[in-house]
Amino acid sequence: MYTVGELLRQWRHRRRLSQLDLAIAADVSARHVSLVETGKSNPSAEMILRLAEQLDVPLRERNRLLLAAGFAPRYAERPLDRQALSAAWDAIARVLRAHEPYPALAIDRRWNIVMTNGALDPFLAHVAPDLLVPPINLARLGLDPRGLAPHIVNLADVRALLRTRITRQLATAPDPELTALYEELLAPHPGDAGLRIESEIATPMIFRFGGRELSLFSTTTTFGTPMDITLDEIAIESYYPSDAESAAYFTSPDAGSGPPAP
């Protein structure tokens, strides 16, 4: 088991900061940071949280830091439902509904879908039923041959985009289950050799259903100052048409019936 000092040092290295960098950001001395990391000084809970804030440590891991120092956790982890987090649940639902007629969904830290709007439903019409059994994983839904993968024209681009995002996420907050998902779905693929994503927002997903193509790009929204682990780990994925033809589909009278059958 790691000490709180060892954990803080790991996070500092992960953020590529020197002890002086962290000390200046947290308004403490570099010597104090050194003493904390080496275990020669026992930091207060407030000092741990101050350093964690400057290191952008996720709330789940801040609890781990506190426990390592002998303090009680500060951040609750409640289920995202109408009883435990009713205000947040309603806010997410409103955001997703407001994005219609374009698809939008909310995912957790492991890319499991926790909520969608109605515009996404038609895209799932031809997905294998077992992939739609909760928890539905967005990465698996997109890359599995029984999911949306056969309908994605630029699958190599989408795979590279997901690889970039999940790699960055794991660098920020390592997670064994997300690592397993990465190894399952995003291992090196011959078609990906040399492929780089220059801009995430400029890389569309191009779907082909029947003879029609729909091009979409996505943006990601997170809660600004969450005090609950569940909210800290929720992201809203909003999809937009990237050309006039795709936009026309979503505003056409038959949009709700879904893309043409493959």
From TrEMBL:
Q: GO MF annotations for this entry? A: DNA binding
- InterPro entries per the record? Cro/C1-type_HTH (IPR001387), Lambda_DNA-bd_dom_sf (IPR010982), MLTR_LBD (IPR041413)
Enumerate the SMART domains for this protein: HTH_XRE
**Would you say which domain of life the source belongs to?**
Bacteria
Show where the HTH cro/C1-type domain sits. 8-62
Q: Which residues form a coiled coil?
A: none
Q: Which PROSITE patterns match?
A: HTH_CROC1 (PS50943)
Q: By what name is this protein known?
A: Transcriptional regulator
Native organism is Sphaerisporangium melleum
